[in-house]
Structures are given as structure tokens and as C-alpha cells.
Design brief:
This protein has twelve helices and eight strands. It is of the alpha/beta class and 254 residues long. It has one domain: TIM Barrel (Alpha-Beta Barrel). The protein has an eight-stranded parallel beta sheet. α3 links the parallel β3 and β4. α5 (109-121) crosses α7 (142-154) and α7 (142-154) crosses α9. The longest helix is centred in the C-terminal third of the chain and has 19 residues, at 183-201. It is globular.
């Protein structure tokens, strides 16, 4: 049985003071209201990581993520953050390949493969994002598009490495637009991703890997999305900035 996971990606939002308030609210809600095994991950901006790590402390069910990382261990890479730096402030997870990183910062599948290697070598766990833009969906080439993302970024990993990866499917046309893939569309793609994993590493591993849905997840659609057999939780953007909404989404995974 795969444990559900709900990750809140704050993106470039909140000051450190606002982030501290939001994280404190979420931690307290999870302590008071979460009575089932659901894994919660918070991904604040880099400037908040140390504060949020201290707020999380040893709280059950909650861990800390970074929104990105460099593929380099150290050196003359102005503005970059290494895996070692993240580990030092209590980070356990790293989001890689978010559609905004791919689009705005031109991160390629090949660069993401290197970032995956760095994250895994450093002992952190990646949440690897994949998904198609609107024009690809309209051409009905979404399966091939996502398959290429998986092949070019993940397929060099060993079975042992792959067991540490969580995948997040993001239909790019549903991020920040208010649109959401239907429950059936989400399940269809999640099943396709799991099929690709089975073809590469075998059905046993494919059955273990968690695949999250990301794309305008809200309190009113979370429960139905998460109930689909291949949807193992969500990567939540805007709704994770409101503690009550985020907690209601988490409850949708119960």
C-alpha cells in the first residue's frame, strides 16, 4: 500500500515572517487533525528553509523540501544552492523539473538527469515533475511527450535509486489557470507513467512508486482526484498558501 503524499510548493511567495506564520499554522493543524498515515511536505522559498525546518522539528508526518537545487556540488556558480547546503538546514526532499523551471529557466531533460544524480548521491529524495503543455494535449501526443521526459531524465537510474523517487504529473495547461484535468484524465496519465516504469524496472517497482497530481488542486477536487487508483497525492501550488485550504486538501488523501 503506497502512503499518500501531499506537498505544498509555495513558489516565490511569502516573506520569512509570513512563511513562519503559515508553516506554524500547518504544523499545528497536522498535529491536531491528521489521524491517518499521510506524508506532508512543505517547500518554502530558500530564504525560509532554516526557519521552517525548526518549526517542523520532530513533528510527525511533516518534512521539508526545497524548490530546486544545483547539479553542482560547489564552486563558482553564483546564485546557486547545492545539495549539501540544503541538507545542512534540514531539507529532506527537492522538487525537480517543475514546469516553471523548464519553461522560464530552460531546464532540459538532460540537466534534470544530472540534478537527480546529485540529489540521490547526496541522500535527499527527489519529487520529479513531468507533464505536457496545452499544444501537446491538443495534438493528443501527451503520452509520448511525458514518456520522453521520463526516458531522458530517469531511465539511467538503477532500481535502487529509482525507489527513492516520487513523480509528480503536472498537466501544464492546468497550472495556475484554474483548470484541472478531469479525474479520468489524471488517472489515465498516471497509469501510463506507471506502465512506463514497469517496462523499465518491472511491475513490482512500478507498484511501489508514488505518482502525485499537480495542477490546480483544491479542497473541492482533491478527494476525488486522490481516490483514483494510480494517484498517490498531490503537488499543490496556490492552495498551499492558505493553511486551511491546504489542510483540507491533505484530508482529501485520507
Amino acid at each position: 500500500m503506497r502512503t499518500k503524499l501531499v506537498a505544498g510548493n509555495w513558489k516565490m511567495n511569502t516573506t520569512p515572517e509570513e512563511g513562519q506564520k503559515l508553516a506554524s499554522e500547518v504544523v499545528n493543524m497536522v498535529k491536531d487533525e491528521l489521524n491517518r498515515e499521510v506524508q506532508v511536505v512543505l517547500a518554502p522559498p530558500f530564504t525560509h528553509l532554516h526557519q521552517v525546518s525548526r518549526l517542523i522539528g520532530d513533528a510527525k508526518h511533516i518534512t521539508l523540501a526545497a524548490q530546486n537545487v544545483s547539479e553542482h556540488e560547489k564552486g563558482a556558480y553564483t546564485g546557486e544552492i547545492s545539495v549539501g547546503m540544503l541538507k545542512a538546514v534540514g531539507v529532506k526532499w527537492v522538487i525537480l523539473g517543475h514546469s516553471e523551471r523548464r519553461e522560464y529557466f530552460k531546464e532540459s531533460n538532460q540537466q534534470l538527469a544530472k540534478k537527480l544524480d546529485a540529489v540521490l548521491a547526496g541522500g535527499l529524495q527527489p519529487i520529479f515533475c513531468c507533464g505536457e503543455p496545452l499544444e501537446v494535449r491538443e495534438k493528443e501526443d501527451q503520452n509520448g511527450y511525458v514518456q520522453r521526459q521520463l526516458e531522458e531524465s530517469l531511465f539511467h537510474l538503477s532500481e535502487e535509486q529509482m525507489r527513492k523517487v516520487v513523480i509528480a504529473y503536472e498537466p501544464i495547461w492546468a497550472i495556475g489557470t484554474g483548470k484541472t484535468a478531469s479525474d479520468e484524465q489524471a488517472q489515465e496519465m498516471h497509469a501510463h507513467i506507471r506502465q512506463q516504469l514497469a517496462g523499465k524496472w518491472g511491475q513490482n517497482l512500478a507498484n511501489e512508486i508514488r505518482i502525485l497530481y499537480g495542477g490546480s488542486v483544491k479542497p473541492d477536487n482533491a478527494k476525488n482526484l486522490f481516490a483514483k487508483p494510480d494517484v498517490d497525492g498531490g503537488l499543490v501550488g496556490g492552495a498551499s498558501l492558505k493553511s486551511r485550504d491546504f489542510m483540507d486538501i491533505i484530508k482529501g488523501a485520507i
